[in-house]
Write a structure and sequence with these properties.
458 residues, alpha/beta, 11-stranded parallel sheet, two-stranded antiparallel sheet, 29% helix, Genome integrity and telomere function protein, putative, LRR_dom_sf
Length: 458
Amino acid sequence: MANKRRPKKTRAPYRRYVYKSNNYLAGSDEDEEFEDETEQSETTLHTTNNARFKRAINVQSIYVLSDQIRYQGKMWPWSKFEKVDILQCALQGHNPSYAHNGPEDEPTQGVMKFPAEIFVHIFEILDAWGKLKPKYMRVCKLFYLLILPILYRQPQLKATNFFNFVEAISSNKSLGQYIHALDLSYIIQSGKNAFVSKLMKRAGKNLEILVAPQTSFGLGPLIALKNCSNLKVLDLRLVSETLNLEELFKSIRNLTELTQLSFPRSSVEIHDYQSINWPPKLTFLRLSGGISDDFLYQFEFPPSITQLEFAHCPSISDLGFRQILYRIGANLKTLKVQYPMPGLKKNSLDQVFSYCPNLRVLEVSVDYVSSMFFDEQYLGYMDYPRPLRTLYINSSGMLGTSTRLDPIDLAVALNDGRLPYLKHIQCTAKLGWDPSSDALGYIADELDERKGGIYIGY
């Protein structure tokens, strides 16, 4: 039996602490009522809190800053999702006009709630890692529609799958609109002019990058270039067949988006220089192959060219090289002269800094410079700081080239402030520079202070 004489235990008054939501506007009447009701009994608190949260907006609501300022999010084009900052909106208050009731969404329960843009971003990451597999397209129709453009954007074509790819593009014309880049450099002795031209016509609508194959790039593919209205990069450096430059320029003169053009390494044919019209937005030009001095003298190069490269040009002499630098050298920001250039002399590149004062990237071969390359006679002071930032120095390794340039001259140029922005130097070990020498140590320390460095390759 219980001891009735024992005094009953007295329970201390307990105050229930309830999370005060900020879903309501500051200074509202409901908040004031809630503050008054907190002093009532526990039962009254339960009733008030239940009523309060029943009237609150459910999880599917979208919050905005205030009723006066409508917080509009970014609308995604495919899934029609509105991207908003939920945390910021929840802290500021809610707008009843944005509230969605749960029962209204019941008919769309079977629709995928995850935005399609998120899937596309995931698939692009997998494609960049090389882990996007065609078998993922079998998951559902949505995955098929999202992965198909990514797989055909830049197809990996080789001699083993080239014919099957052309057949697939020919049978389904809609696949060509997904192609943005065509790299045919691995198609060697396995393609035909008809196949290449057909592929270019199918992909011509959205094609932006084209790397031509070594063979099978004749008159048919040149004519098919007219259909590539959005082409930005045209690389013909691997073409070994004789190319008619007149037909080439007839095909590309209307390509208003073309910015990069690389000439073929083969011989070229041209008779009428006056009929040549350059693309209006051309900024990068790579000259190679059978380009002669007559070509450099007769052509009117556009002033829009800011990047110029020379590679494997046996017919260009010292006079022709200086002529083109004299005409467009002031506009150049990148100049690269690669070995071999048998028509150039041992000092043909000494005046590069005079002809091209605005260079930011320069690549030279020690075969075509003298020991005075870094002297003040050629690398002098200017009215403004010279903007050169990157310097590449290569060498063929021929007899006498290992003593052509002395690192002391480069160290003096850095010390005198004639190369104030130079940060990166990449050279070859064929120059014969001693890494433990004081001059090379000073160069390394100076470039390190500029957050750059010198790199010697082997």
